[in-house]
Amino acid sequence: MAPLARPATVSAVLLALLAPLWARADALALTHYEVAPVTIYPSATSSPALATSTAITFGFSERAKVSLMVLGPSGESIRTLYASSGVTNPEPKLWDGTDAAGAVVAPGTYTLALAATSTAQESDALYDTSKTVAVALPPQEPPPDFTPEEYALPLARGWNLLSLPVVPDDPGAAQVFASPAIDSVWSYDLADPAAVGGWLVFDPAHPELSTLAATAPGAGYFVRARAEAQLSGNGTPYLAPGRTPPSRALAAGWNLIGSYATSTADLDDAFASIGWAGIEYTALYSFLPGSESFGLPSAVAPGAAFWIYTPAPENYVPSDL
């Protein structure tokens, strides 16, 4: 009878040998990881015009608990740039060459320590220290500037709710909303002293009477168009090297906000700086162009805008920088 037991024993051995391979096939992995530029010139080392920072972009094969730290030349902790209890593809993170106290670090090479643990399996983790950033004294001439980006947002006939996916070269409302198809533009900001009941308006026919003078990052705009058209222009990314990330103070109650996303993002990633849905914000509505009705968004795209209700004041920044 002994030979009859052998196949079961062999199968058990094979399963034991193959199990680690199956586990590795589903292991947490980096899907992308880029750092640019790899040399930066902090503002305190020379004039502000020479200041640059670096953008750190990464993503994972599954949802993970993540931390991103800057380590000094001797391996000491300099600053925690990012920490999240669960993300997949967060917005890029910026480092401007400062430590946790806001002081510019000494010139040298600094290591980025990226640690992640799968939220589905606590034992499934990774640790990457392959990326470095050099902090240098500024050269005599400014480093190369970033490339401006073009944007083009479709306008449906009637009301549209949108935001600007970049910082326009000229943020003036008269320049941004110069299309002859635009009838009026409305925004909402309780903190703006020019607002009436929170509302700001730009009337292309009477700019001298308008209360909406300029566009701002993180703001949403209701745009009424006489016909189908396109809102286009040029600008710089919100997270461009050397640019301080924008922020928008939200009041307790309803706020009209724009998207900071550079690509389509899920709600948890896009509004991580505000907090958890149902707790730090309790309502979120998007607008359907052409239908003039509101709905619950499933994702956040560049150029989108939303009504959001926050029970307490919040600070809204790109992702959770």
Main traits of this protein?
mainly beta; 321 residues; 5-stranded mixed sheet; 3 helices; 39% strand; 4-stranded antiparallel sheet; 10% helix; globular
Task: Briefly say what this structure is.
Helices cover 10% and strands 39% of the residues. By secondary structure, it is mainly beta.
Beta strands, count: 21
The total of helices stands at 3
Q: State Rg.
A: 24 Å
Note poorly predicted spans: 1-25
Strand fraction band? 35-45%
- Main beta-sheet strand count, sense and barrel state: 5 strands, mixed
Strand line-up of the largest beta sheet = 2-8-7-4-5
**SSE-based structural type:** mainly beta
Distance between the termini: 67 Å
What does the model show?
This protein has a five-stranded mixed sheet with strand order 2-8-7-4-5, with no helix packed on it. A four-stranded antiparallel sheet has the order 10-14-12-13, with no helix packed on it. A four-stranded antiparallel sheet has the order 17-20-18-19, with no helix packed on it. It has three helices and 21 strands. The chain has helices spanning 2-25, 173-176, 267-270; strands at residues 30-36, 39-40, 54-60, 64-71, 77-87, 93-95, 108-118, 125-135, 149-155, 158-162, 167-168, 182-188, 199-202, 221-225, 229-236, 248-250, 253-258, 283-288, 293-295, 305-310, 314-316. Residues 1-25 have low confidence and may be disordered. The longest helix is centred in the first third of the chain and has 24 residues, at 2-25. With 321 residues, the chain is mostly beta strands.
